[in-house]
Every structure is written in C-alpha cells, then in structure tokens.
Amino acid sequence: MRTATPKPIVHIFKEYNIGKFKTTRHYKLEKVLNGSNQLTDIINISKDRNCAQSMPDYWLQVREGKRWKKPRLTGLFRTGKNFIYKGDTDNRTNLVLFKFSESAEALTIYFYSNFYTKDITSLLNTI
Questions:
Q1: How confident is the prediction for the chain on average, in pLDDT?
Q2: Residue 26 has pLDDT above 50, yes or no
C-alpha cells in the first residue's frame, strides 16, 4: 500500500551579506507556509571541502544564539535538476529539498515531515 505524499512545510529565505564570503552564503527566513519553522530564522549554506565520505555538494548550518550549529541534516546532494538539492534529517525520517534561485539570492526549502523516499522524481515536478 502506497502512502500519499504529504504537503511540505515551505521555508522561504533571502540571502544577506551578499558577496561577503567566498564559499558560504547566509540566508534570513522570510516566511513559512503549511506549518511551523523546522529550521531557524538564520541559516548558512557552505560548499563541501571534501571532508565527508558521502561527498555532498553543500552543508547547511543553523544559527542558535550566537553560534553556528550543524543540524541533524545530511549534506545537500544533487538531484539532476538545476538548482535543486536533496537531504534528509533524523536518519531518513524527513526529506528536505532545497531550491535555489538562479542567482542563489533566494532559497526555498521544502521540508517533508515524517516522509522519506529515494525516488524524488514526482516531487521534483511539483516544486
């Protein structure tokens, strides 16, 4: 029996500190749709420096107080569609899709709570 795909919690971020750092971009939360914030109000996305065996393209960090912290999220991996990456939290409990604007100044994160699948083809067509 196949379960229906849940509606994602959509987080919309805008970049700030544009051009300040070479390998890291900082984003502030603009709004959340379909639920409550699953991340933090400020995040950063940094390029992978080939330190992990899994070889993601990017890493996400969340801002908690005055410190950057790695959340319980895997790295961001390519999906085959331009500007869209995937990851998961809590050992494949929640699927997370990242959609960057062409300039990467806007970032939309789709958080699928209590849902995970390896085949994201149908999801890519809906975002």
A1: 90
A2: yes
Q: Where are the domains of the chain?
A: 9-120
What tokens appear for 80 in the block? 């085959």
For the full predicted model, state whether its pTM sits above 0.85: yes
In three-state form (DSSP H/G/I as H, E/B as E, the rest C), the secondary structure along the chain is CCCCCCCCEEEEEEEECCCCCCCEEEEEEEEEECCCCCCCCEEEEEECCCCCCCCCCEEEEEEECCEEECCCECCEEECCCCCEEEEEECCCCEEEEEEECCCCCEEEEEEECCECCCCCHHHHCCC
